[in-house]
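Exercise: predict the fold of this chain.
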Amino acid sequence: MALNNTSTRRLFCLVLLLVGAAAFSPTLVSQRRHDSSCRTPSTLQQTTSENESVDSSSSASTTTFPIWNESELMEFASKQGIVLSLTTLGPGYRAIARAKHDDSLILGYVEGFLRPGGTIWHLDKMEVFRKMVLKARSENPEEFSQGGTVFGVGLLMGYICLLYGKDNGYTQGEFLAIDDEEKQHRKLVQFYRRSGFEIIRYVGDGIGDIPDRMLWGGCGTLMRQDIDVLLQRWTLLLSKSKANKTSTSAS
């Protein structure tokens, strides 16, 4: 069957995105799911509905909260005992969090890319190494306190990547909670709901989902949010932890 010009352009853009992501991180594609099977829609709809109520009203309360710049974020992270770094290659980006007292302790990383010719900041993967976080906390308990949680480290890495997207004119963040296993999928959806992302739809094994499956490497729950909304929300969350640490030290 012949492809029309629109279909050809879309296919070409997809190939460019996939090649760009793979070139930035050689292990990226192999870490994704590539089978074509998905769980049944009824189970997935239940998973989605259970998580739609998680902290659903908090985004609106952060719409006027000021956003930190990179230097403010770095200063905050340093006071939490964490050193952040961001590297880029073409449209790709990668952030790494290390323990300030021992930079050989890698706490986690985030990677993704800016979709060429669009407005979407694409979050491909976030991983926090819990054992390293616990080790850093035990070795540096006074400084590595409020930042010494899986959620806290993830926010800090995601924040610097969102700033990178915002500075390059991108306005929306997008993430797919990969559905490799039901329990883990639920946790991912819950985590990103609490982070401020909204559920868009489930990417399944239907014909209409093929482009998204090619882009993301599998089935899962597609989530999206405005970058400014995420940054405002995360600034509020991090500021609260900052205030808690200050009040604890004073007492």
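Check your answer against the key: The chain has one domain: 67-246.
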